[in-house]
TrEMBL record:
Stretches assigned to the ABC transporter domain: 7-249
Alphabetic keyword roster: Amino-acid transport, ATP-binding, Nucleotide-binding, Transport
Family named by the database record: Belongs to the ABC transporter superfamily.
Stated name of the protein: ABC transporter ATP-binding protein
One annotated GO molecular function: ATP binding
Alphabetical list of InterPro entries matching this protein: AAA+_ATPase, ABC_transporter-like_ATP-bd, BCAA_Transport_ATP-bd_LivF, P-loop_NTPase
Organism: Tropicimonas omnivorans
Signal sequence bounds: none
Pfam family, one: ABC_tran
Length: 249
C-alpha cells in the first residue's frame, strides 16, 4: 500500500468496533489475493467497500469473517484479537455475515429461514423476529411461503433478517442489492440505515458504488486486493480520481 493510501486508512479507522488490519492472503495454497488490506467500521456506522470486479472485495469480507486464512495481518472485534476464531465462533462474538451468493435456504419458509438464523440462541427469539417483521413487513405477510419463491429484493430481506436474528453487533453484507431494481435498492439502503441507527455497525460491499457511498460514513476503494482510496463517503464521491476511475465520471 502507498504511504498516502495508508494515511487515509489510518484517518478513518481510529476507534473501530471491527477491523481487519493489514490482511494478506488467498485461497488455499494459491497466490495472495489480499495485499495488506485494511477494512474497519466504527460502532453504529456504515462502512462500504467498492471497487472493480475481482478486486478482492468478497475475499476481504471472507477474511474478516474467518472464512479465509490470512498469512499476515489480524482481525479485531471490540479490541479483542479474533484472527484465530472460526466463523461460527465469530458469530457467537457478535458478527453476522450475509454472503454474496447462496444466502438463504430457498426450500424453507421465510420464517424457518429466520429461525435458522437464531440457531445459536437459547433464549426467546420472538422479540427479535417481531423487530425483523417491523423492519421488513413483507416478510411477515409471506412468512409461510418458501423463501425461494420470493422476488430478488424480498430474498435479500430474508437474508438480512436471518443475519439479524443473531442480534449482531456488526452486520456484514456482500452486495445486498445485487440484481434488484433501483427502487428496491433505495428501500434496502433505507432499511440498512435504520439498522445502523439501532447501534449495529454495517460493513457492506456494493457494486452500486455511487448510491452506496451516499449512505456510507466511510468508503474503501479496493483495487487488486489493496486499499486504493479511503475516505468518508462524501470525500470519495467528490474525489475526481475516484469519480473518473470508479464511479463513471
Ligand atoms: N473460492 C475461490 N478460490 C480461488 N480463487 C478465488 C475464489 N474466490 C475468488 N477468487 C479469486 O479472487 C480474486 C478476487 O475475487 P473476489 O474477492 O470475489 O472479487 P470481488 O468480490 O471484488 O469481485 C479473483 O481473482 C477471483 O478469481
Ligand atoms: Mg464479490
Amino acid at each position: 500500500m502507498s504511504r498516502a493510501a495508508e494515511a487515509q486508512v489510518a484517518e478513518v479507522a481510529q476507534d473501530p468496533v471491527l477491523i481487519g488490519e493489514g490482511m494478506t492472503g488467498g485461497y488455499g495454497r494459491g497466490a495472495d489475493i489480499l495485499h495488506g488490506c485494511t477494512i474497519a467500521v466504527e460502532r453504529g456506522k456504515i462502512a462500504v467497500i467498492v471497487g472493480p470486479n475481482g478486486a478482492g472485495k468478497s475475499t476481504a469480507m471472507k477474511a474478516v469473517f474467518g472464512m479465509l486464512n490470512i498469512r499476515e495481518g489480524s482481525v479485531r472485534l471490540g479490541g479483542k484479537d479474533i484472527t484465530a476464531l472460526s466463523p461460527q465462533a465469530r458469530v457467537a462474538q457478535g458478527m453476522a455475515f450475509v454472503p454474496q451468493v447462496r444466502n438463504i435456504f430457498p426450500s424453507l419458509s421465510v420464517e424457518e429461514n429466520l429461525d435458522m438464523g437464531a440457531f445459536l440462541r437459547r433464549d426467546d427469539i420472538s422479540e427479535t423476529k417481531a423487530q425483523i417483521f417491523d423492519l421488513f413487513p413483507i416478510l411477515k405477510d409471506k412468512r409461510r411461503q418458501a423463501a425461494g419463491e420470493l422476488s430478488g429484493g424480498q430474498r435479500q430481506q430474508v437474508a438480512v433478517g436471518r443475519a439479524l436474528m443473531t442480534r449482531p453487533e456488526v452486520l456484514m453484507l456482500d452486495e445486498p442489492t445485487a440484481g434488484v431494481s433501483p427502487i428496491v435498492m433505495d428501500e434496502l439502503f433505507d432499511r440498512i440505515i435504520e439498522v445502523a441507527r439501532t447501534g449495529i455497525s454495517i460493513l457492506m460491499v456494493e457494486q452500486n458504488a455511487r448510491q452506496a457511498l451516499e449512505i456510507a460514513d466511510v468508503g474503501y476503494v479496493l483495487v487488486q486486493g489493496a486499499n486504493a482510496h479511503t475516505g468518508t463517503g462524501a470525500e470519495l464521491l467528490s474525489d475526481p480520481v475516484v469519480r473518473r476511475s470508479f464511479l463513471g465520471g
